[in-house]
Design goal:
Elements lengths: L3 H25 L4 H4 L1 H15 L5 H25 L6 H9 L3 H20 L2 H4 L9 H29 L19 H19 L7 H13 L2 H4 L3 H4 L3 H7 L11
Length: 256
Amino acid sequence: MPLVSELLPGLAATVALMVALWLISIPLRDVSIIDLFWGVAVATGGSVYWLQADEPTMRATVVMLLVWLWAARLFIYLYFRNRGKPEDRRYAEMRSKRSSFWFQSLYVVFLLQAVLAWVIGLPQYGVLLSEQPLGLLDAVGIALFFYGLIWESLADWQLANFLRNRDNAGAVMDKGVWRYSRHPNYFGEFCLWWGIGLIALAAGAWWTLVGPLLLSFFLLKVSGVSLLEQDIGERRPGYREYVRRTSAFIPLPPRA
C-alpha cells in the first residue's frame, strides 16, 4: 500500500475542483451543477496520478482513457437532460430547510462528494503500481467496463425518450432495459466501476477495491435505489405494480 502523501495530490485536486464549483453555485443558487461535474471530479484525481508518474504504464493509460470516456458521456448526458431546468428537487428541499445553505452546501454537498469521488477513483492510482503487461484479468475488467457503459447509456437514452413524450407524464417507464430492472442505469454504473476495479486488482492493488465497494453501497443503500424509491410510488401510482414484477437492480425476467 502507498504512503498517504502519495495519495494527497489526487485528493487536493478533487477538493480544488469542488470548491470552484461551490463558488460558482452561490450566484447561480443551484447546487445541481455538482451532478454535471461528478464524473469529471472522479477522473481529476486519476489524471493527477497519471501525470505525476515518470512513465505511466499501458494499464494506467488504458484506465485513464476509460474513466474519461465514462466522465464525458455522463457530462454530456446530464447537460442535455438538465439544461434550462431549476435546481434538483433534492437540493432545493435542503435549501428550503437551511437558512445558510449557500455556506453549508460547501461541506454538506461539495466537500463530502469530493472525498467520495476521490475514494471511488482510487483504482486509478492502483493501476500505476505494477509494470506487468496486460493480462486476462485486465481483459475481463475492460469487457465488464464496456458492458456496463453500454447498458447505462442505453438505459439513459431510453428513459430520456420516454420522458420527452408528454403523454407519459406520471407514467412508469417499464420498456426496454427498464423492463428487466428498475434501475438499469445504476446497474451499468456498478458493472463499469467493478471493471475498473478488476484492472486495479490485476496490478495487485487489492486495497483500491474500497472504491467500487463504496460506490456499490451508495448505489444500493444511500443515494441510488433507496433514495429514489422513498416517494416515487406517491408521484407515480403505477410504480407499486412495477415493483411487484420487476427486479430492483440486477436485470431479470419480469415476474408474472
